[in-house]
Each structure stands twice: as C-alpha cells, then as structure tokens.
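BUG: 3D viewer hangs when loading the predicted structure for this chain

Environment: internal workstation, default settings.
Expected: structure renders.
Actual: progress bar stalls at 90%.

Input used:
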Amino acid sequence: MARLVSFSANNIGALFGLGAFAVFSFSDVVVKQLGATYSPFQIVFFSALLSFPLITLVLMSDQKPGTLRPVHPWWIALRSVSGATSAVCAFYAFSQLALSQVYAIIFASPLIITILAIPMLGETVRLRRGLAILFGLIGVMVVLRPGAVPMSGGHLAALMAAVTGALNSIIVRKIGHEERGVVMILYPMMANLVLTAAILPFVYVEVPIADLGQFAVVAALVLLAMAFLVAAYTRGDAMTVAPMQYSQIVWAALFGALFFGEYPVWQTYLGTAIIALSGFYILKREATGDVSKNRPVLKTRTRIGLPAGLHVGIILRRRRKKV
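Structure tokens produced before the viewer hung:
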C-alpha cells in the first residue's frame, strides 16, 4: 500500500510538473511575440513591474524575524545581476531564434551547474558524470553546428542565459540555508527593475493597452507556472519532477510551428536529445546518495537556466518550517 501511495503521489507531481512547463512555454510564446516590437530590457522591466504586487503579497507572509540586510551581500549582488542578465539574454534569444533552438541551448544549464559546483561548492565530479558533461557538450555543438551555421547574437544570448542561470542556481545552493527567503527573492526582483529601468530610456517604445495586457499575461503565466512547480515538488520527489522540464521541447515544436512557422532542422532535435539524456543521467547520479554531497542540479527546484520569478526551493523551505 505504501508503494502504491508513493507511486500515485509521484504521478501527481509529474503531472503538475508537466503543467508548469507547458505554462512556461506558452509564456515564452508571448515573450517571443513581444520581442518583435520591444527590446528585451523593456519586456523584463514590465514583466517584473507587473508581477511585483503579487510577489510582494507572498513576501509579506514571511513571519521569520530579522532584517532585509543580506548575510552575504556580495553573493546576493552577484545573484541579482546574474538573474537580470539571464532574463534579458533569454528574452533576446527568444526574439532571434526558434523556440526549440533556445530550449536546446538552455538545456545545457545542468551541465554548467555541475561544472560550476566543483569550484563553488567543492563538489567532486567523477568519471561518469564527467563523461555525461562531455556528452552533453557534444549535443550543444550538434545544435549550434559551428562552421555550418554562423553564430548569431541570439545564439550567444542563449548561451549566456544558460551560464548565468546556472550561476544563479549555484549561488542559491551555496547561501540559501543562511539567507532569509525574502532576501533571496526581493533583491533579484529589485535588480530586474532597477537595472532595466536604467536602460529603458534608450530603448523605450510606446506601449498600447493591448500590448500592456500581453506583458501582464507574461507575469501572470510565470506566477501560475511557479505555483504548479511548488505543487509538483510538494507531491513528488525531485527525481520525478525535474526531468519534466525537457517536455518543453515538445511544446516548442508545437507552438513554434503553430504561431511562428518554425520547422527546425533535424540536428536541433538530435542535439536536444543528447543534451537531455546527459542532463537526465546527471540527475540520476545525483540522486544516488554516495555520488554527490551537494546535489546542485537535483536541488535546483526551479526553471533551470531561464527567468522564473520566485525560487521554488525557497518557498518549499518556508512551507516546511510552517508545518
């Protein structure tokens, strides 16, 4: 009976995870549409501004005593800048590349997290995980096809989003147990607003009411997807929920063809499959207790490599403390 209950709970968690990444993918469709008219700085600014009231309500429920001064100000500053950079680069990549290409490159984030965990978390990466990283990087090369296809700003932006998103995840893993959740969320939120607001006068395009509604839709969809992710990780274990992020390539193929007439070459899907297999293997190895002491990828309980608003792991920790 215990096994049946556990299996059922993981199934529900997986379904919530699939729902979360479907909603994320649809929000990316809206971002891509907006990217045809607006700068990524303007998209990030309005998305952050419109999500601010709802996220503030969540933060106000934090009853843990203390100040808003970070314990590790320099790490928080780096997390804030890397988060804003990841958002701007990802939104720019969506405006320049097919959805499936952006996702394929972003899926390399678990590989980058594993590499960064060596110097930043003292993680030991043995032969098998090292080979998985190498295998995944080959997948990235298959997608990029250097020499056959010129490297564009969109490709570089997607790679930068993957790197800064991975850095963001590692910082959360490094200092998350010492910082208040409200601090970990509030400072990156403010960085998104302040940094993009500083550039906004140089790129601003007047926003009609209809487009303002689309900005609001992006903010609402991201918050809805995060709620689904919290529900997923509350019900299922990380090894069941985390791989659900790779379902985004299915939505990318569907939405790309439906809304933008995108039909990527077969190398994109081959490379994506290679990257996803290597990422899944890294997740599986981290789930083995004697392989990874930090489990940096498995514990990244949010949308790896892409802007995702609230951090799921922080919310889950607060929930456990209340219980």
